[in-house]
Amino acid sequence: MRGTGDPSRHTWGMEQGLRSAEFGPPGPLRDRLVALILSGRKTATSSLVSDYELEGEPLPEPGELELLLDSNDRGVAVLETLAVAVVPLVDVPWFHVVAEGEGHATLAEWRRDHEEFWAVNSPAGQLDGSPAVVMQEFRVVERLEAE
């Protein structure tokens, strides 16, 4: 899930005016997802289109750079968006689930986990039907030193 965050907390983000990339709320989940990203195992993510709309944020675009924030809202890496697609939740393909790197064994398991997460953490609240999902592929272009 994306958030607005404060990229000025890290000099790189402040100088470049980057949007922040926040993977889940601060805490154990974000810590795990950031570790997966930094290890190279997580190269994709999914978000709800409705969250972008409610937060007034544009969807990510290929070539866009974002500042990856840890649980302390510190910039730990710069991510480059490689590809973006919007599909109904029921049409998210297996290759995307694998690229998310979170260890889901089936599409049904991935959907259940994401639906539960979004029902609790999404500004849109409870999901109806098959909401539109933003599938984003990315790569780490620079790891940032701890301050």
Description:
The structure is a single chain. This protein is an alpha+beta fold. The chain has one domain (7-143): Sulfate adenylyltransferase. The protein contains 5 helices and 5 strands; from the N terminus they run H-E-H-E-H-E-E-H-H-E. The protein has helices at 11-16, 28-39, 49-55, 94-100, 107-121; strands at 19-21, 44-48, 65-69, 75-88, 132-143. The protein has a 5-stranded mixed sheet. A hairpin with a 5-residue loop joins strand 3 and strand 4. The two termini are 25 Å apart. The relative contact order is 0.24.
Offer a concise description of the structure:
This protein has 147 residues and is an alpha+beta fold. The chain is built from five helices and five strands; from the N terminus they run αβαβαββααβ. The protein has one domain (7-143): Sulfate adenylyltransferase (Roll), CATH 3.10.400.
Strand content: 25-35%
| CATH architectural category | Roll
Helix content: 25-40%
Low-confidence stretches: 1-15
Number of domains: 1
Shape: globular
Number of β-strand runs: 5
Rg calculated over all Cα atoms: 14 Å
Strand order of the largest sheet: 1-3-4-5-2
Mean pLDDT: 88
